[in-house]
Amino acid sequence: MKRLADKVALITGAGRGIGAAIALAFAREGAAVVLAELDIETARQTAELIKTQTGGRVLAVQTDVTQSASVQRAVSEAERAFGALDVLVNNAGINVFCDPLTMTDDDWRRCFAVDLDGVWNGCRAVLPGMVERGAGSIVNIASTHAFKIIPGCFPYPVAKHGVLGLTRALGIEYAPRNVRVNAIAPGYIETQLTHDWWNEQADPAAAQQATLDLQPMKRIGRPEEVAMTAVFLASDEAPFINATCITVDGGRSALYHD
User: Fold this and answer.
1) Ketoreductase domain: from which residue to which, for each copy (predicted)?
2) What's the confidence (pLDDT) of residue 65?
3) What pLDDT was estimated at residue 12?
4) How do 97-98 and 154-155 pair as beta strands?
5) How do residues 74-96 score in pLDDT, each as one tens digit?
6) 174 is catalytic
7) E strand or H helix at 139, and its extent?
8) What is the pLDDT of residues 35-67, one digit of tens each?
9) What is the DSSP letter of 247?
């Protein structure tokens, strides 16, 4: 029996990286999957790949998570295609790293519009249906930045701290209606964004090695390792896990110092 058989899931930012890995893992486990992505061409390509690999039901929908109406349209399209949503994964996010005193107002708003408001827009769009049906699972992709601070990364960790607060507050608010809200906090994960950051450094190979040296397991995580955690939280295997956060970082955040 597939772990997400007969479930319908919407994943934001699912065109690539962790979001695409989650969508693929969900489809393999039997879910009908909706890729809600700003870059619709990337989403369509990923959707076709998932269909080819799994034979599952997959839909790509252009979605701007900063706009509540856009997110609501994506939910409506998902419901028309596959029925009521059982699972939402709020994965869409951007890195905004600034010096606090030179950061512009636009930088601040851009970070919070995607990384926090986008999560709330997703939750607000699906909660009424989940509450009415008395069932549902929301998985918010946070970050180890949600509880650890790296200098030079402001205001990203502020927004991610907010994601954990939102997760806990909504999880408690709707627990009596059997709607669970949890988060996953990935550490260093090997996505294109990670490679882009290494390649921006003066010595990309040295930058990559320095990152690997920081890790207790001497490697960084893979998107599919985050994806399988999302499968667990979305499934009926986690009925009593609510308002909490699972860290996927190979133990890095447990270190006091290097």
Assistant:
1) 7-144
2) 98
3) 98
4) antiparallel
5) 999 999 999 999 999 999 999 99
6) no
7) strand 136-141
8) 999 999 999 999 999 999 999 999 999 999 999
9) E
Instruction: Enumerate residue ranges in the chain where pLDDT < 70.
Output: none
Domain boundaries, the chain: 8-190+222-254
Q: Which two tokens stand for residue 232?
A: 């667990």
Q: Tokens 């930058």 belong to which residue?
A: 207
Q: Which two tokens stand for residue 61?
A: 């929908």
* Tokens at 247, concatenated: 């860290």
Rounded CA-CA distance 47/53 in Å is 10
**At 154, which helix (H) or strand (E)?**
strand 154-155
Catalytic residue among 156, 174, 188, 256: 156
Please state, in angstroms and as integers, the Cα–Cα distance from residue 37 to each residue in 50, 81, 152, 199, 236, following that order: 15, 17, 28, 25, 26
The answer to whether the CB of 186 falls within 8 A of the CB of 252 is: no
Instruction: Measure the CA dihedral 64/69/73/76, to 10°.
Output: 130
Calculate the alpha carbon distances from 181 to 26, 107, 219, 249 in Å: 17, 28, 30, 20
Tokens 């320095």 belong to: 210
Beta bridge partners of 234: none
For the domain 8-190+222-254, what is the CATH superfamily, name and number? NAD(P)-binding Rossmann-like Domain (3.40.50.720)
